[in-house]
């Protein structure tokens, strides 16, 4: 699951990424402990935030899987089925099933493009727009609760660290020596 942020892609373009050859080995196979992994910790935080967001959106009958595309549509991050599937990191089939549920709830409708019949646009209904209005308040409240005790400087530092990790993750990792040797002859 991802938390949409309208400004994240533009800020990621400016993230400096250290070359992988200069990377410090923070983990070693001999004493690797999953619960000490940054990835594990980020996944746990994300799962707990997602659970709380879903709990707080229970009254609006939106699941975690449903509020994300609804929110992306409401802030203009997607307008077609294909864009929404990419933005939600779902395949076309999963997005179709999700849109079926959102349509059944009366929150959106699929409309074929007049300019290109292959394109299916998604429009929020009045009920969908109303449901989406509470999402930013819930996200703000839940994320602020998870950041309790952080100073503004710590918050900004944390975001910088996370952006750096994200930037590093977007750089292809070289194949292990055994894999490279098998292809090099």
What does this structure look like?
Helix content is 54%, strand content 5%. With 185 residues, it is mostly helical. Helix 2 packs across helix 7 (135-146), helix 3 crosses helix 6 (126-133) and helix 4 (81-87) packs across helix 5 (92-104). The longest helix is centred in the N-terminal third of the chain and has 19 residues, at 38-56.
Please specify the SSE layout and strand pairing.
Elements: H1 8-12, H2 38-56, H3 64-74, H4 81-87, H5 92-104, E1 108-112, E2 120-124, H6 126-133, H7 135-146, H8 152-169, H9 177-183
Antiparallel strand pairs: 1-2
Primary descriptors:
single chain, about 180 residues, mainly alpha, 9 helices, 2 strands, about 55% helix, disordered N terminus
Q: List the helices and strands in order.
A: HHHHHEEHHHH
Name the quaternary structure: single chain
Alpha carbon gyration radius: 20 Å
- Catalogue the unreliable spans: 1-13
Mean pLDDT: 86
The separation of the N and C termini measures 41 Å
The total beta strand count reads: 2
Strand order of the largest sheet: 1-2
Structural class determined from secondary elements: mainly alpha
Question: Helicity level, as a percent range?
Answer: 40-55%
Q: How would a textbook summarize the main sheet? A: 2 strands, antiparallel
The geometry reads as: globular
Number of helices: 9
Instruction: Quote the beta fraction.
Output: 5-15%
């Amino acid at each position: 699951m991802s938390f949409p942020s309208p400004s994240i892609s533009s800020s990621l373009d400016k993230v400096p990424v250290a070359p992988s050859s200069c990377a410090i080995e923070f983990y070693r196979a001999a004493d690797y402990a999953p619960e000490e992994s940054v990835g594990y910790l980020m996944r746990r935080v994300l799962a707990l935030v997602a659970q709380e967001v879903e709990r707080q959106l229970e009254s609006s009958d939106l699941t975690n899987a449903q509020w994300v595309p609804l929110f992306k549509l409401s802030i203009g991050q997607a307008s077609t089925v294909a864009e929404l599937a990419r933005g939600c990191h779902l395949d076309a089939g999963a997005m179709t099933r999700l849109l079926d549920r959102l349509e059944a709830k009366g929150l959106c409708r699929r409309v074929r493009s007049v300019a290109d019949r292959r394109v299916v646009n998604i429009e929020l209904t009045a009920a969908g727009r109303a449901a989406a209005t509470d999402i930013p308040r819930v996200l703000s409240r839940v994320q602020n609760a998870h950041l309790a005790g952080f100073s503004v400087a710590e918050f900004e530092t944390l975001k910088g660290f996370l952006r750096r990790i994200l930037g590093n993750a977007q750089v292809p990792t070289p194949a292990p020596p055994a894999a490279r040797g098998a292809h090099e002859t």
